[in-house]
Amino acid sequence: MGAVMQPSGNEVSREAFAEVRRSGRANQQHRMVLEALRQHGPSTRGDLVEHTGLQIQTVCPRCHELLDRGEIEVVGTAGKPARQVLALKEEGSQ
Known about the structure:
By secondary structure, the chain is an alpha+beta fold. The protein contains four helices and two strands. The N and C termini lie far apart (about 60 Å).
């Protein structure tokens, strides 16, 4: 009897990410992050964790995706060590 191959950590992560996308949770989480930025203004990812109730492991990839899509932007840094401050992208800004 041969050895049973276990999925690697990367394979598990990719499958979990795909499941979040398929289930629609990613879109819901995007909306939560955007709404928190609308309500509270520019925020760090840590602030967004507090405002949304999501975990940091969820907030970081959603912010990365929103940055890639041009819906939010980095507007500065705060604290030491420096943390990026994110805000809704202004209409017409490039």
